[in-house]
């Protein structure tokens, strides 16, 4: 037995509704994934490092930097031309092995020493870093997220 023309018409009319419902579910799922990624500390650290989220900073003289100038990526990534980088790349190698800066005792970064560096400009060996490094007004959560990201970068 063949379906009636009316039944076929009703089925054909429901196909666009199904496609719309599937598309709506996909959009909702992607939005939920984006919200969860935003809440992840590593994802938040990525956003801060690359300037997709604001980091307030001042240069040593106390002058506030524009948010676009305070992104870590501006100084701690390779030059766009592929030339050498003047400032250390921030990655897991930087944070994993103890170093002996300025001939002192071996030190390594942990979250607390990283956040102290960000806020006060003092490294784990209790030495003031260059005045070129901005001092950041960063919350504990954002500093932890930034450390989580940079300490895991390949």
Cα separation of the termini:
64 Å
Structural class: mainly alpha
Order of neighbouring strands in the sheet with most strands: 1-2
Query: What's the helix-strand series?
Result: HHEHHHEH
CATH class: Mainly Alpha
CATH topology: Cytochrome Bc1 Complex, Chain D, domain 2
- Average the pLDDT over all residues and give the rounded result: 81
Number of strands: 2
Supply Rg: 25 Å
Instruction: Note the beta-strand portion.
Output: under 5%
Can you tell me the overall shape?
Answer: elongated
Helix share bin: 40-55%
Question: Do you know the CATH architecture?
Answer: Orthogonal Bundle
Transmembrane segments: 20-38
GO molecular function: electron transfer activity; heme binding; metal ion binding
Organism: Chenggangzhangella methanolivorans
Protein name: Cytochrome c domain-containing protein
Q: Could you characterize what this model shows?
A:
- Helix 2 (41-49) packs across helix 6 (140-150).
- The radius of gyration is 25 Å and the shape is elongated.
- It has six helices and two strands.
- With 154 residues, it is mainly alpha-helical.
- The longest helix has 35 residues, at 5-39.
- The chain has a two-stranded antiparallel sheet.
- It has one domain: Orthogonal Bundle (Cytochrome Bc1 Complex, Chain D, domain 2), CATH 1.10.760.
- It has helices spanning 5-39, 41-49, 73-76, 92-96, 111-120, 140-150; strands at 56-58, 135-137.
